[in-house]
Design brief:
The structure is a single chain. The protein is an all-beta fold. 0% of the residues lie in helices and 26% in strands. The chain contains no helices and 26 strands. Strand 25 and strand 26 form a beta hairpin. The chain is elongated. The N and C termini lie far apart (72 Å).
Length: 295
């Protein structure tokens, strides 16, 4: 039981504690980083006075099914609900001026950014609202049930680890206004069979599609200039990769441990980093230069 008049719960205050329920006094205004991380909490009702919720405050609270956000929360740290694999719904007070929840999914107030889709929310498909321009860090990470996600045409940013470990996700189409796919965005999506990348994309960051073990082919648009470290590493089923003119940098281990036998390197490439194509399957490398192809 927490005492009335308590204002702040500091970083890691109850980290790894065997706390199953918590009654917050209405005086609490701040909860720190990892304050309740790895606790066996089931349901959390945050106090109405709460203004700030620190990063990873409830990370790995795997038994937590619901959480209710009050009217005064203004600051929400990174990955507050990361690896809360039992989470089914997030609700927000209608009086809150910074955040909103629709069907249990957490957004910023204007619904331009999706912050968290609960990992254990029911349903196999989801259409991100047309107002959303940013998929937040870890927004869909470890979603257990989703096989299909539709992204809106006005989307511009996919942040790091947004869809990591969506193990049932089968395919994804990246809208043309997205310029960068963040680090680890789709890593460990082990049942993804294809991804559609559209013209307009500029950067595929490190580990973006790491260990997408059923991904069979990918065509990199000509607008892409950089493919990051381990971007497609350990994509075991990958047999076809199209690299188009415009590409400049291929990061280390970018296509390591795939099943692609032939790569054609465009003339625009100026840097191929360490072990970019390391694989016993590679039998042919074609390099284009001055209108000619060299083997």
């Amino acid at each position: 039981v927490l005492p009335d008049g308590l204002l702040e719960i500091s970083d890691k205050a109850f980290f790894l504690a065997s706390v199953k329920t918590v009654d917050f006094p209405e005086s609490v205004k701040s909860i720190g980083i990892q304050a309740f991380a790895l606790c066996p909490l089931t349901t959390v009702n945050l106090p109405n006075a709460l203004v700030s919720l620190g990063g990873q405050a409830f990370t790995m609270c795997t038994n937590m099914k619901t959480i209710a956000i009050g009217p005064n929360l203004q600051e929400l740290g990174e990955n507050v609900f990361a690896m809360c694999d039992g989470l089914e719904s997030i609700t927000v007070s209608s009086s809150n001026s910074h955040f909103v929840s629709t069907s249990g999914v957490l957004f910023d107030k204007n619904k331009t950014k999706i912050i968290r889709y609960p990992s254990n929310k029911s349903g196999t498909s989801y259409s991100v609202p047309s107002t959303v321009k940013t998929i937040g860090n870890n927004a869909f990470a470890r979603s257990k049930n989703l096989t299909s996600i539709s992204l809106p045409t006005n989307l511009t940013m996919i942040e790091s680890y947004s869809f990591q470990n969506c193990t049932k996700l089968k395919n994804i189409t990246i809208p043309s206004k997205v310029t960068a796919i963040g680090e680890g965005a789709f890593q460990f999506c082990e049942n993804m069979t294809y991804v559609t990348l559209q013209s307009g994309l500029k950067t595929i960051e490190s580990e973006a599609f790491l260990c997408c073990k059923k991904l069979a082919s990918v065509s990199i648009p000509s607008t892409v200039t950089d493919i990051g470290q381990s971007a497609f590493k350990q994509c075991d089923a990958l047999t076809s990769v199209s690299l188009n003119s415009g590409l400049k940098t291929i990061g280390q281990w970018a296509f390591d441990m795939t099943n692609v036998s032939t790569f054609t390197i465009p003339t625009t490439v100026t840097r191929i980093e360490y072990a970019a194509f390391a694989s016993y399957q590679v039998s042919s490398l074609k390099i284009k230069y001055n209108g000619r192809t060299y083997y």
